[in-house]
Design brief:
By secondary structure, the protein is an alpha+beta fold. It has 1 helix and 5 strands; from the N terminus they run βββαββ. The chain has a 5-stranded mixed beta sheet with strand order 3-2-1-4-5, with helices on one face. Strand 4 and strand 5 form a beta hairpin.
């Protein structure tokens, strides 16, 4: 199952979406809500998967399962 992590941006603020295959950001956004929406879109466009939403302290605070859209 594919995963996307929504994590705080590095030093510059904002939020980023990171895939499990790489530690580099796949998307950068200004807000956590925008990053969650972007992660959802990425997973809907592929085979679906799971979003792990991290808090500012780095801990996982929520998980969401996303189904592929037809």
């Amino acid at each position: 199952m594919a995963q996307r992590h929504v994590v705080p941006g590095n030093g510059g603020g904002g939020w980023k979406v990171v895939g499990t295959a790489t530690d580099s950001a796949e998307s950068n956004t200004n807000t956590q809500a925008d990053a969650i929406d972007e992660a959802r879109r990425q997973l809907e466009d592929t085979d679906g998967g799971e979003i792990l939403i991290h808090g500012v302290d780095g801990s996982v605070r929520d998980r969401r399962t996303i189904q592929m859209t037809s």
